[in-house]
Each structure stands twice: as C-alpha cells, then as structure tokens.
Design brief:
- With 584 residues, the chain is α/β, with parallel strands linked by helices.
- The protein is built from 21 helices and 20 strands.
- Strands 1, 2, 3, 4, 5, 6, 7, 8 and 9 form a 9-stranded mixed beta sheet that branches. A 9-stranded mixed beta sheet has the order 11-10-12-13-20-19-18-15-16, with helices on both faces.
- A hairpin with a 4-residue loop joins β18 and β19.
- The protein is globular and about 75 Å long.
- The two termini are 34 Å apart.
- Bound molecules: zinc ion.
- The site of zinc ion has 6 residues, from α5.
C-alpha cells in the first residue's frame, strides 16, 4: 500500500470555501497554498452541493490541478438541527445549540442516506478527476469531520454533559444489542449508573453508533468506486471521559477506517501549549489502527480562538511530534474564513508560515521510507469501562500524565484498549511493563489478562483506584485499605516527600512484598511483589497526578511552576524502578 507513498505523502491544508467567495478568490487561495509548498487540499465540498453547484466545484478542482495541488474530498458536517435527526438527551430535551455542531443521531437511517447521497454524488461526478490525491490509483476520501454526540460545552462554561441518545432509533437498536448479548430486550435504556452492568452495556452500545454509521457510509462509497477511507477523529476526547457520552471510542472508529486521522491541536482549549496531548492522540490513533497502516495528523496553523498565539517554534515542534509518533501525513488547519477576504496579508498570514516546515516535512518523510517506529516495551491501559463507570477524568489524566513522564524520559509507549488487552495484545507485542493506572472499573477478562501478563514474566504497575461497585472492580482489591483518611504524603528515595494530590489508599502488602515507600501515617505506599514469573508494583496514590497537573509545555513548566507543577524526583524514581527491572 505504501510503496509510492513516501514520494508523495499527504501534506495538505484543510480548505472550506464558500461558493459565494467567487472564482477569483478560490483561485487565489489555491495559488497561495501551492506557493507554501503544500501538496494537497482537504476540501469540504458540501457548500457546493448545498446550492447544487457542481460546476463551481469543477472549477475548483480544475484550478487546483492547474497549480499542482491534489484534492482529498472531505464530507463535512453537512447538516445540523433538522428536527427528525436531533439527538435526544436523558431529560427528554434535544441537543439544539448550534455551537455543538451535531449532525444528529448517527442511528438515523435518513442521516446515513443523506451522507451516502453526498459522498456518492461526489464520486460519480469527480471520482476520476485528475486532481484527486491517489495512493496506488485509488483516491483518498475523508468521511465526516468530527462525528460526535454533544450536548454541552463544559470546557466553555456549559453544564455537565448528559447521557444520550434516547431517540426511537437508538431505543430500537438497543433492544437488538441486548438480545445479541443474551439479555432481556425488555430492559429500558438506563438513565444513570445505578445498574452498573446495564449502564456499561448502554455506553458500549452508544460507542458502536458512530463506527456503524461510518462503516455503512464507507461501504456505500466503495460500492461506487474503490477508495481509501478515513475520518477525522474528534479533538481532545481521547484525554477526556466525555468520550463515553460523545460516543467517541477511537479504537471502535479506527477499526472501520483504512487510514487513521485525528484532530488534536497543541493549543486546542488552553493558552498552555499541550504538546503531550498532541502526541498522545497520535499514539492512540496508531493503536486504534492496530499498529499498522497509515496515520495522519492535523497541524495547527491558526491562533487559538480563545486569543492565545501559537508559539513561534510551534510548527516545527508539531511536525517533529507528528513524525516522532508515527504520523506520516499532515493536514494543517488554518484560519481563512474568519478573516476578511480583502486583506490578503492577514488572510494568508498563518498558512504562509508553514512553508519552511512543509519542505522539511516532505524531506523527513522521504528519509523515513523503510523505517518503522521503535517498538514500545511499555504499554498503558486506556480503560473505557473506568471512564463509563466513574464519569470523571481521574483515570484518563493519571494515564496521560504518566505517558508524559515516560515519553519525557525517552520511552516509546503504546496505549492499548481493554478490547486489545482482552484479545491478547500484551503477549503479542511482547511488552515488558504494563501500567494500569487509576483503573477503578475493569471487566474481569481484562483483569485476568493483566494478572496473566505478570504471571508470565511481565512487570505490572498499578496505582490508586477507588472502589466503584461490585460489578467492576479495581485490580487487587485485597491489597487496598480505603479506610485511612489522613494520607497526605509518602516518602520516596532519600526521604523525599511526595504530596498526595488527589486521593490515596493505604496498601496491605502481601507477606513477601518489598515495601519501598510509606505514607505519613507509616502505612505502605509503594511495594513490589513477585507474581508468578513477573512482578506487580503497587502504588497507593495516583502517580500521574502526583507527578504533574498538566500535560503542557516543558519551558512553561519551568517559567510558571505555580501554573504547571512537576515532581522531577518522582519521575526519576519511577524511571529508576523501571531500570532496575531491565527496562531502560
Ligand atoms: Zn439516537
């Protein structure tokens, strides 16, 4: 598949023209993109079909061809707020705020038909157009920009996200799901976590909605002509429990795509530059594609809409980050539509800044031909069940912050899903150490696989995890004592105190365990115990949260320690534990 790829990799900018801009403006935009040494545009073509303007679209494709730009057609969020398609929330309201950019419920047959119609029309009209970007003679097409179920924006001061979708189509499909899983189809969709097992089924079912939609849409498009299919996986959701409500399980989504593509930016929601989340998203995408095949990233060539400026070295950092984490394609988002079309300098200010790194990127991709990313000896477990049961970010950030710790220490790290673990990936990929952090709710099969990993010689790291319910438990509940309320610090090497930032439980080490650290009340805080041919390290506190409070920029942490906290001694300590186990 990738034989010719390295000579003509994906290096593009998103382009979302309005037919009302006029042909002259469109031709000018394309000329500037070409001057920036971009190879392609990822084109949102919907606005042309909104007004039935195939000729306008043809003009655009011809103009791209004329300046040597290739085109990847992107089916955008082409519809919103149609009454019969709306998402129904747990309280019976529908998700009506246009800021949420919902296309509607992905279980709606009419939404699927509309999407198929749009995709098929493009392929029938332009599938053989010479401007289309192709790999091995097949065009690449992206299906839907950011598919999700959203009913609030807590990050911008909105209420908490609510469970969804309770529309008639989801209710009917849930009955089928229950039958398939050997349960009574008389059960109603749950509205809260009071029945943990039914709730988990409901959330798992919800996570199938978008992948099923994409799978059907892609199959219909491929029936028109063979192509490579991708989808722009949504924003910051790998690092947030909100995924369980938005229906964004990247592993489920990756399973129906030919290429991985994601939409994470370093300055997405914050003035603090979050390159570790940017990297994390790529490593998750890579994992979601089964550690094979192409993954591509988005680049940020716009200043934050919250007013924050992109740091001057950001574009360079982004391309090295993307490549370092296996993304061999890059698509910039830039800020054309928000700026006046009359002001040439302003309109192209950001995209012009990509020129130098575009050249560098093309050169670096070419050099990477024949190489594969270093294989990771360490895996981090991403627990969908914990997110669904806890409805908070204690697990997600514990994991992300340890990811930051490990990558800062030079370790390549894989992030693996519960399903991958259940299917035996820990043995398949020969990990030496696995971290299951803040995992308060794990399905029993995942628990069995994790303990089998240690029994077979692996090193398993487990840290604090609150007790949620009997149905889904944390690992090793007998080693945890939740009754102690006064745990504030624990001491690692040389009597260095580490502050318990969030929560901790005293440990009850098994007899042969070696205790490495104690809490302020002298109870065990960290121990190692042999486990079959391997070992388990147990940590009584959330080690990721204790290490840092933010996956942000290294320099910023040095400049503003009150803003971004890092415990460098704890990082060195963890690296030392790994090194002693031969993982360096
Ligand atoms: Zn629905």
């Amino acid at each position: 598949m990738l034989s010719q790829y390295f000579e003509n990799p994906i290096l593009a900018t998103y382009y979302y023209p309005r037919p009302s801009w006029g042909q002259e403006q469109i031709a000018q935009d394309l000329k500037v993109f070409s001057e920036c040494d971009l190879r392609a545009v990822w084109l949102f073509y919907d606005p042309f079909y909104d007004i039935d303007d195939s000729e306008g679209l043809r003009y655009l494709l011809d103009s791209a061809d004329a300046v040597g730009l290739q085109v990847v057609p992107v089916l955008g969020q082409f519809t919103q707020l149609q009454d019969d398609l709306k998402i129904v929330n747990v309280d019976g309201t529908t998700s009506d705020d246009p800021r949420y950019w919902n296309m509607g419920c992905f279980r709606k047959p009419r939404l699927l038909n509309l999407a198929i119609e749009r995709a098929a029309r493009f392929l029938k009209e332009f599938g053989t157009h010479s401007s289309l970007y192709r790999i091995d003679d097949k065009p690449v097409m992206s299906f839907v920009h950011e598919a999700y179920y959203r009913n609030s924006v807590p990050e911008f001061g909105g209420d908490e996200m609510k469970p969804n979708c309770y529309c008639d189509d989801c209710r009917a499909a849930f009955k089928d799901y229950l039958k398939k899983h050997g349960m009574s189809d008389e059960l109603s969709p749950p509205v809260d976590t009071s029945d943990p097992i039914l709730w988990q089924h409901w959330i798992n079912f919800h996570a199938e909605s978008i992948p099923l939609f994409l799978k059907n849409l892609i199959a219909a498009a491929k029936a028109v002509m063979p192509l490579w299919a991708t989808h722009e996986c949504n924003d910051f959701y790998p690092a947030s429990w909100q995924s369980v409500y938005t229906g964004n399980d990247w592993w489920e989504m990756g399973a129906v795509l030919d290429f991985g593509h994601e939409d994470m930016y370093p300055l997405e929601f914050d003035n603090r530059y979050q390159c570790y989340v940017y990297n994390y998203a790529k490593d998750i995408m890579k994992s979601a594609l089964g550690f094979q095949g192409l993954i591509t990233a988005n680049g940020q060539a716009f200043n934050s809409w919250l007013g924050y400026q992109l740091p001057s070295n950001s574009m360079s950092e982004q391309i090295y980050s993307a490549l370092g984490h296996g993304a061999l394609g890059l698509v910039w988002w830039t800020e054309l539509p928000s700026l006046s079309a009359d002001d040439e300098a302003k309109r192209y200010h950001m995209i012009r800044q990509t020129k130098q790194v575009n050249r560098l990127y093309l050169d670096l991709v070419k050099r990477l031909s024949g190489y594969t990313p270093a294989s990771a000896e360490i895996a981090l477990l991403y627990s969908w069940t914990t997110m669904a049961q806890s409805l908070n970010d204690e697990h997600t950030y514990d994991t992300l912050l340890v990811y930051m710790l490990l990558t800062q220490s030079g370790y390549p790290v894989d992030i693996v899903s519960e399903k991958q673990v259940s299917n035996g990936i820990l043995a398949e990929r020969h990990y030496k150490a696995v971290f299951a952090l803040g995992c308060s709710a794990l399905p029993s099969i995942v628990q069995e696989q994790l303990t089998a990993f240690a029994e077979n010689g692996g090193i398993l790291f487990v840290d604090y995890a609150p007790y949620m319910n009997d149905a889904f438990q944390p690992l090793f509940p007998d080693w945890r004592n939740y009754t102690k309320k006064s745990l504030r610090t624990y001491e690692i090497t040389h009597e260095l105190p580490v502050t318990v930032q969030l929560a901790a439980a005293a440990l009850i080490p098994p007899e042969d365990a070696e205790v490495f650290a104690y809490f302020n009340d002298k109870s065990a805080a960290i121990f190692r115990t042999s486990f079959g041919h391997g070992a388990v390290f147990m940590i009584g506190s959330y080690i990721g949260w204790d290490y840092s409070n933010y996956p942000g920029n290294y320099d910023l942490a040095k400049m503003f320690p009150f803003y971004i906290r890092r415990d460098y001694a704890l990082r060195e300590y963890l690296v030392q534990l790994l090194t002693q186990e031969g993982i360096c």
